[in-house]
Each structure stands twice: as structure tokens, then as C-alpha cells.
Amino acid sequence: MRLYIVGIISLLLTGTVAAQSRWTFSAGPEWTPVDLKIHVWGMRVRGGYDLIKPTSALGLRLEGAALWTPTQSYFHTENLSGPHGWGGREQRTDLMVGVSASVSPIPRKGFYYYLTTGIYARQQTVRGYQSFAPSLPGPLTITPASVSRGDIVGSVGFGLGLQIGNRAFQLEYRHIPGGSGLTLGIRLPL
What we know:
It contains one helix and ten strands, in the order αββββββββββ. By secondary structure, it is mainly beta.
């Protein structure tokens, strides 16, 4: 059994299969602006399969992704025309499936950078409420903000890649309507 585990760890570290792998797994934080000062934070995970050779200057990838945010509360006050405030509590989830394309002006070996864009089908759910107080203290208006919707969204971003031996890593920033995120990815030895 120990020899089996050592063999798997050796394969993952040496990555003889990883050089040919087209599978990538990424994860990292994503933030959604509620207003200019308030953001809701969550975690995005993404898996992708390269349709074009991963070392090519052009890339085309099938992707699936999911977002989860813990339940978060926020409150904001304004003193421009008298004291008033608004706030809320929400939790967000989404599932996305789509295609992304990328271009790298230098070959994808060693250290490289790339630009990426994509189009995705997204199913998003937001659960929570929003409240508004026209004056503090004053009457509080609470509006349920639970919604589930499907839409087609695009994304744009850029990334940095690093090839160490047979292992490929990437750090990628993407903006998707409704949020931005930063993910760290690794090519899987599958």
C-alpha cells in the first residue's frame, strides 16, 4: 500500500503524464460589488479541458465553474442630505458552463502571459434581503432579494503562466458581469 501511495505522489510530482494533460483545475476568491464601498466575497472553482494543444499560442477551452459565497451582511450610511442608510444580507451561488479562448504573444513554455475571453451559460441564485431607512432612526423598509435566473454572460481577463518541469501553473484574473475573480490553477496529471 505504501509503495502504491509513493508511486502516485511520484507521478504527481514528476508529472510525466502532466505534460500531455489538457485538464486544468483552478480555484480562488471572487468579489461582487454591491456599491462602490461594499463587496460580497466568495470562492470560485473552475475546471477546463483544452481543445487545442496547451503549449500553443492560441487556446480554446471547454469550462465548467461554480461560485459560492457565505451569507454576508452589509450596511452603509450616507450623510449627504441627512442621515439615512441601507443594508442587506445575502448569499450567492452560480454554475457556469462555456468556452473560453486565449492568446499568448509568446510560446507557452517557461514564463508566459496571455489574454482570455469567454462566453458562458450561467445559472445564478441570490438569497437574502435588502433594507432601507430614510432617516436614522426611522422606519425600516425590508425587501426580499431572493432571485434565481439563467443568462448568457461573457468574460475578459488576463493571466500569467509558469511551466516548471512538466508542471504548469497559472494565475488568472477574470471579470464576469456581476463580479471579478483571481484564480490559481494547475494542469492535472490525467
